[in-house]
Amino acid sequence: VVRVSGSNEVLSTLVKGLLFGFAEGDKDKKNVERKKRQEDSHSQCKLLVKALIELLLSFEDTRDHKEDDGKQLVAILATLGVFAQTFPELVVPHVDTLVPYLKGDNGVKRYEPAVVSQVSSMISGASTHFSSGELNRLTSGELPTDLVNICYKFPSEAVTSAVEALAKLANHPDAVSNSVQEKKLLKLATQFYSYLLKTKDVTNDFSSMKKSVRDNVRRALAALGSICRFYESTGAADDHTLDSSVFVIETDIAKLQLSNLSNAAFALFLRYLSKEDASTKCLALRAMNGVFISRPRVVLVAEQMGIITSVIGDEAPPSVQIESLRCWRDILISEEKRIDSGAAKAKMEAQKDVTLSKRIGGDQDGDSTISGSVLTKHSERLYALTLSKDEKVRHMIIDLIGHLLRQGLINPMETVPHLLSVLGDVKCPSTRSLALKLLQNEGEKRPDMLRQRICAGIKQAFHFQRNVYSGSNNGSAKVTALIAKSDGPKDGWETIFDAVIKESAIRNKKAQRQGLLKGIISLFENDPGVKSSNAEQLPMLAFASEILGNLTYTSLSDPLFIVYHSSCIAALDGQGVLSQFAELLGGDVCDPNSEEDDIEKLTIQGKFDAAALGLEAKGAEFGQLCVEAARILPLLKLKQFLRKAYNISEARVTSYVPSEKELIHEKGISIADGPPFSFTMTSIIDANGNINWSNATKIYSLFRRMMRDAEADDVHVDPEPTKSPKRTAKRKRGGSDQVEESPKVSPD
Question: For a FRET experiment, which of 118, 207, 557, 612 has its CA 20 to 30 Å from that of 421?
């Protein structure tokens, strides 16, 4: 599994879930069961680790030392790493088997960085379980030197793992002061700090420097940032009133110690963050992230200095935005792991200056909320990044929003419309898939969320496509509610919201389905608080009508529900618009749409002339009424389409009542073959606020014609009066035509 997928992350999550399960309460019975299961799991993992070590040794004995062997070697080590994360102590007896791989001469040149990175990570996890004797034996050997050599030979990913292992060995409780590993770590930090100090003023744009300089800067920033992140200084914790004055570049290398390295390094990182080239900015951000993770209060200083605003602002290059979002994600994940693993509580208990009330209250995660709080302050900017034209930025921000939602740091009601909008990211399936997964999670926790926020989601989805794809069609925005079907026996189209509705509980509940549909239809209703409709909203209404027309319906009650409410809106608002047209044009107010008028005839003939009809002075009023008509027009077209697509008879439309129960024979329906529903909204008012007479008269003519057709279709036929049940006739007497009457009963 690990070899095929290329990552052990999913398998690691699965193994932890299977071995430990999820939160099951604190009842004694469940505690006993959990303890027994953990004991059984420990035994099974112990056997699996032994089997993997045997597989590793067997692989080394039989390998042909070809380049492709590296993939198999990395897969074995990564699988071993899964169990090393679950039970790190199981790796301790096999450390001597793993340490030689840190030499970096394993005969798999292409995969060497991955090999040393995997082994370094396992050493890091197992280091806390080393005994004093085991620690002294390993650190007095070549292990510290091998870890240092990795930092000079391999890419930044391997450097981070090696520095973490060296820092964990230096922070071991049984490690003596000025131990070998601590000296190695300080020397490493001093050398990389010196190099960055020397090159900080060489240029303002490192992209113009030769490759060797760029590589050295990359390596130095990665190593120094990792040291700041993983080495825990024995000094006092940051004060609540920490300010930027403590961050000063130390120019005297002799004064540099591990205890004051973080402040000096952070100041140096700030200098590199101010460089012009985006790649150096990203490297500096990644290094600063190490300080943010180890010292959360520094995030407050960064916020005060405007660093956070600058790296996620519109002025920042997309690569810098992506790196800043990735850093925030890593901070959130790191803090979550620190709290869940109990490391935060252990660190709090080890501090002598922590008050008894804090110990009792368990306020070990006080600092962990700082990063999330600062990020929440920028939530509006995070939502705005979902509209970025760079698909990698959009994917990264959705990933970050997922972590914020899971940790309860942002409002789901405010977030769901933005996730719904990303379902319209038709050119980036991976981002759509991630947003869909988050919506499914929210739907399981809050079943009514989709129904409540669908209107805002449609508006945001339309806004998303208009902004993100604004340059995809000769400068004009191409907005579509349809995508190719992701599954099913035949090819076709589905709406961008089909997948989330299909996976939610709404699909099987009539009341919630109708609530969802009613929410979408409400977009077409006239707002009582607004005097007139906005012409700018008409394309969004066309977009909403395409969603209504192409959603996958499995019960006839759903299209009937849409037809019913479309008829209601057309009957109420449509007749009012027709009457206002008649008043403006001097027509018959009592019967404003009995037949074609002169404007319709001239429009069909292509001879319409506003001046000849004396309408130029009435252009503003006529245009606004056409906007009102265009608001209702998609519903008239939609009603016509649904009746034909689902073969709905006039009698069924007339007899339908929204509160009726679903009929069994009307379930399991499917749409007839044919093109999907589409509606293109033409512009009535131009950018200068003037009426486009050609488009306006076409909408006027189409609206009047469809209203006449709707009136003809919706002629109400009164059902037959209900007949009272007949009295049962008595049998005739023999040979008699008289019916025997019931005997009369006396009141007495």
Answer: 557
**How far is residue 441's CA from residue 446's CA, in Å, rounded to a whole number?**
9
Distance between CA atoms of residues 502 and 495, nearest Å: 11
Radius of gyration in angstroms for the set of CA atoms belonging to the chain, rounded to a whole number: 36
Q: Are the beta carbons of 288 and 295 closer than 8 angstroms?
A: no
Contact yes or no for 440/504 (Cβ under 8 A): yes
In degrees and rounded to multiples of 5, residue 121 shows phi and psi of: -65, -40
Q: Give the model confidence (pLDDT) of 171-225 as tens digits.
A: 999 998 889 999 999 999 999 999 999 999 999 999 999 999 999 999 999 999 9
pLDDT digits (tens, 9 = 90+) for 503-517: 776 677 888 888 899
Helix (H) or strand (E) holding 495: strand 493-495
Give the residues across from 476 on adjacent strands: 473
In this structure, the number of other CB atoms found within 10 A of the CB of residue 270 comes to 17
H/E element holding 539?
Answer: helix 538-550
Q: Outline where 469-507 has alpha helix (H).
A: 498-503
- Cα distances from 69 to residues 81, 168, 730, in angstroms, run 18, 31, 99
pLDDT tens, position by position, 75-94:
899 889 888 887 888 899 99
d(CA 504, CA 450): 9
Alpha-carbon separation of residue 439 from 476, 499, 508 (angstroms): 30, 10, 17
Give the Cα separation of 496 and 461 in Å (integer).
Answer: 9
Query: What's the pTM?
Result: 0.84
Residue 626: pLDDT band by 50, 70, 90 thresholds?
very high
